[in-house]
Amino acid sequence: MSRSGFVARFALPAALVFLAAAPLSGQPSDDDCLVCHGDSGLKGGQGQSLFVDGAKSAASIHGSAGISCVDCHSDLAKVSDFPHAGKLKPVACASCHEAAAAAVGQSAHGSAHSGPKPFAVLCKDCHGTHEIRASADASSRTFSLNIPETCTACHLSRVPNARGPGFVGQYLQSVHFRALSKAGLNSAATCVSCHGGHDVRLVDDSRSKVARPNIISTCGACHAGIERDYLEGVHGKAYVKGSRDVPVCTDCHAEHDIRSPADLGSIVYATKVAAVCSRCHDDESLARQYGLLTSRLKTYAASYHGMASKSGETRVANCASCHGHHDIRPSNDPRSSVNPANLAATCGTCHAGAGVNFSKGRIHVVSERTENRWAYTVKIVYLVVIGGLISVFLAFIAADLYRRLRGRWTR
Ligand code: HEC
Ligand code: HEC
Ligand code: HEC
Ligand code: HEC
Ligand code: HEC
Ligand code: HEC
Ligand code: HEC
Ligand code: HEC
Ligand code: HEC
Ligand code: HEC
Ligand code: HEC
After folding, report:
1. Which member of 63, 86, 102, 150 has the lowest number of beta carbons within 10 Å of its beta carbon?
2. How far is the CA of 84 from the centre of ligand 2 (A)?
3. Which residues pair with residue 49 across a beta bridge?
4. What is residue 5's predicted lDDT score, i.e. its pLDDT?
5. φ, ψ for residue 386 (rounded to 5)?
6. pTM (2 decimals)?
């Protein structure tokens, strides 16, 4: 539509309506604006729609709180000539929401955080503009069930990902997203439960909710019983003391791709548990540092359980069946499931009627020097003696043969 066509179609009638409806002094009312902006065909210079749905806007949290168009579009508050001049100042949400604006400013999305950002993140990117609702309202973009859509609008591909493309998208396969989207369970974890809303931090910032020192309480906010069990176990006790070497929730369950352990895709699916534990428990330098026994995987793999597990059998014991998973304790702790006093009961969960004798055999049988000095020494002595005997015997035969052959040749 040309400028003059526009004036003929809208500006003149609008101006008339305006003159008729507006009080002589004071601000233009919403109806004044909607005379033009209530037309669904209204377009701006770049062809962008300038339509505002008056009903939606009135039903928004701002509409119902009595906030008018010009409370937000404040440069039009004193204008009485319509159509108004082109470019307007961006709406300053901060003028009424100081605390929210300050928090966002300090976050990974705000300007205060150092480092180059690919683009600015604004209030309207998460909240929208004219249809803003309280977060508890099911139609709000910040309502729990709608959060993944709001955040993935940028984080699936627009924002580069240090952990590789697809890392954030893994959330969409997780048990949490399925619970949210399929079962409508709004108590399942959304992006905001783990990262915060206004206080989102870079993941390597120690204040991030997903930073190592905070991740247990972040998951524990919902999985409270598991947090308690974990903190009572050997890993949790070391975690509280500040150890960076013990596993946290995400080491055993993944960050975004969290699944039910019964799901084949879970990293703690029965046949995969051994790989998760032995990443650390077969690590020589970690073992030396903590005085741990190594060869856990090797000895497990050589056991009946290990071999069956390798071939895909899920009913046999994995590390967690014997040791527990969240409240793992050293075997000398009387409450440990592998303490000699409890072993019969532990084996008994699968081997009905397993008695003390059944469970007596060593599980992690090894003959390596560091683990069993005597077995190792006997093995070495045996090898040396046998080897020596065979060599002496061979030397004797060779010497005898030589003597006989030489006698024949000289003859
Ligand atoms: C007579 C019709 C008319 C009335 C009344 C009117 N506008 Fe507009 N408005 C327009 C037109 C035309 C444009 C496009 C201007 C352009 O692109 O140059 C526009 C553009 C806008 C823009 C976008 C500006 C930008 O930076 O892209 C906003 C926001 C806006 N109007 C808000 C309001 C508000 C708030 C009111 C009521 C106080 C109002 N308008 C009343 C016709 C009107
Ligand atoms: C809660 C604040 C708020 C209120 C109230 C509000 N707007 Fe807006 N409006 C915005 C924001 C934010 C934008 C996006 C542009 C920007 O950031 O300045 C916008 C954009 C617009 C645009 C440009 C087209 C678009 O949709 O992006 C028009 C036209 C407009 N508003 C008209 C109105 C009219 C008419 C009313 C009253 C019925 C109104 N606004 C009430 C915040 C508001
Ligand atoms: C990255 C997305 C995001 C951005 C950007 C964002 N918000 Fe929010 N906002 C949320 C979420 C999510 C909630 C819901 C509360 C929660 O779970 O933390 C929320 C809640 C709110 C609330 C209601 C709760 C409260 O704290 O009083 C207000 C008001 C608010 N935001 C205003 C703003 C303003 C103003 C800006 C811009 C300065 C802004 N938001 C930017 C995501 C965002
Ligand atoms: C003129 C002041 C004003 C401006 C400007 C303003 N708001 Fe509001 N906002 C309010 C008022 C008043 C409420 C209603 C508070 C209430 O009922 O708790 C509100 C409520 C909200 C809520 C819902 C809070 C909740 O309880 O969940 C959000 C979200 C929000 N505003 C975001 C924004 C965003 C984003 C902008 C900028 C586009 C903005 N506001 C601009 C005054 C304003
Ligand atoms: C169950 C908790 C949880 C949920 C839900 C979750 N995240 Fe994460 N997110 C994490 C953890 C843990 C990390 C990795 C932290 C680290 O590397 O130390 C992470 C990392 C990230 C990163 C940084 C990736 C990089 O470049 O290194 C982004 C961006 C991110 N998440 C966005 C999201 C978005 C968007 C959603 C929702 C679609 C979401 N997250 C849902 C826990 C979660
Ligand atoms: C408008 C696009 C946009 C939206 C919407 C958005 N983000 Fe972001 N996000 C960004 C940008 C840009 C960065 C900064 C990346 C940087 O600095 O490297 C960022 C950074 C992050 C980071 C830190 C990543 C890192 O590398 O450590 C997390 C976590 C994050 N956002 C989570 C969220 C969550 C949760 C939501 C939804 C509530 C959300 N984002 C919504 C654009 C967006
Ligand atoms: C050392 C590895 C490890 C750590 C650390 C860990 N988990 Fe687990 N978790 C497991 C294993 C293995 C299973 C599966 C046990 C099974 O198959 O019965 C599991 C099961 C679960 C389950 C399913 C319910 C259940 O108990 O069987 C949830 C929920 C869970 N973990 C959450 C967490 C949370 C939250 C944290 C952090 C506080 C955490 N996990 C820390 C290994 C771990
Ligand atoms: C906002 C609450 C909330 C947070 C935070 C949360 N979860 Fe969950 N989680 C849930 C709910 C609810 C379910 C149950 C979903 C279902 O059963 O469909 C669940 C399910 C799980 C399961 C699958 C349990 C099973 O037996 O199927 C695992 C594993 C899990 N969460 C691990 C974690 C980890 C690890 C973290 C932190 C990185 C975390 N959760 C953070 C609420 C949460
Ligand atoms: C991220 C590395 C890591 C992972 C993964 C891990 N652990 Fe550990 N674990 C440790 C460290 C470090 C210690 C020593 C803590 C201390 O003593 O302070 C330890 C201690 C133990 C102990 C006590 C050992 C002793 O001699 O006192 C047992 C048993 C144990 N872990 C079993 C498991 C099982 C079973 C799994 C898998 C479900 C597992 N761990 C996964 C690092 C790990
Ligand atoms: C069938 C049950 C069973 C399975 C399966 C099992 N363990 Fe054990 N584990 C034990 C018993 C019993 C002990 C204590 C006596 C011993 O050392 O043989 C033990 C000892 C340990 C110890 C030393 C802890 C201490 O306090 O002495 C670690 C570490 C350990 N196991 C890790 C693992 C890992 C990792 C796996 C999986 C690769 C695994 N275990 C599989 C039963 C099991
Ligand atoms: C999670 C279940 C589970 C636990 C716990 C478990 N086992 Fe097993 N175990 C099995 C299954 C299943 C088989 C395979 C076949 C069968 O018993 O019929 C098996 C086989 C065995 C075998 C070889 C086959 C046989 O029956 O002679 C031995 C020996 C054995 N287990 C010892 C133990 C000992 C000792 C413990 C406790 C330290 C233990 N198991 C704990 C499930 C388990």
Report:
1. 86
2. 14
3. 43
4. 43
5. -60, -45
6. 0.90
Which amino acid would we find at residue 219?
A: C
Asked if residue 292 has its Cβ within 6 Å of ligand 9, the reply is yes
Nearest-atom index, ligand 5, CA of 250: 12
Residues of the chain with pLDDT under 50: 1-24, 367-370
Q: At residue 245, what is the residue type?
A: D
End-to-end CA distance of the chain: 126
Position in ligand 5 atom list of the atom nearest CA 215: 12
Query: Cα 304 to chain center, whole Å?
Result: 35
At residue 382, the pLDDT reads 83
SS3 content of the chain, % helix, strand, coil (to 5): 50, 0, 50
**3 state SS of 49:** strand
Ligand nearest to the CA of 54: 2
Q: Is 290 in the pocket of ligand 9 (CB under 6 A)?
A: yes
Q: Where are the alpha helices (DSSP H) in 254-372?
A: 273-281, 284-290, 296-302, 304-310, 319-323, 343-348
316 lines ligand 11 (CB under 6 A): yes
Nearest CA to ligand 6 atom 25: 202
pLDDT recorded at residue 17: 45
Q: What is the pLDDT of residue 376?
A: 64
Q: What is the pLDDT of residue 80?
A: 85
pLDDT of residue 106: 92
